[in-house]
Please model this.
Amino acid sequence: MDQEEKQKRFEAMKAIRDELVGFATSPLFEYRTKNGYFPVVGEGSHFARVMFVGEAPGETEAKTGKPFCGASGRVLDECFAHIGMPRLDAYVTNIVKDRPPGNRDPELDEILLYSPFLDRQIEIIQPHVIATLGRFSMDYIMKKFNRGTDLRAISKIHGQVFEVEAPYGKIKILPLYHPAATIYNRATREDLFRDFEKLKTLIND
Ligand code: URA
Model:
C-alpha cells in the first residue's frame, strides 16, 4: 500500500475527528460532554471496498467512541461472520456522529449538520459499495447520489443494488435493514443475512 496515500487518508480522517471533538455548535454537544460521551467517527480500513452507514450512536457506542458495539453491533458481527469477512476490512460509520438523547431518531437538522462529515469520509475512502443500515442512511445516500426517485419502503428495496456515479467512479448502493430492526424479527434477520451474501458478490465486482 502506498505509504503517502495511507498517511494522507489518516490525516484527513484525524482532521474530521478533531473537528467533531470540538463541535460545540452541535445541539448534541452539551449532552455528549455532560455524560462523558465520545463522538463516534467510524472504524475500519481507510481503504475499504465497502462502507457501512448507520444512523447515530447508541449509548454503548457513545460511551466507547466505537460504532455498532452494542446489541446492533452484535448482529452486525454475525453478518460479517456469515460471509467470512473481517469487519475491520470494511469501514463502519453513521450519518450523525453524536448520540441523540434517549435513543430517539436523528432529526433532519442533525442529519444536515453532520452529513458533511460523512461526505468527506466517502471522499477519503472512495468505497466501491456503500451499504446503508436503516431508513435514515438509505434516504440520505440515495438522495446524495441522485436516486431519490427510486426510494421506496426499506422492506421493498433492501438487497437491491443501485449503480451510481461518484466523483471517483461508478459505485453501488445496497440498502440493508438496520440490525436493530432484526433483533426481534427472525424474517428480517434472514433477509439481512441474505443481503450480506449479495454484498459479498459486489465487493470484488
Ligand atoms: N445504531 C446505529 O445506527 N449506529 C450505531 O453505531 C449503533 C446503533
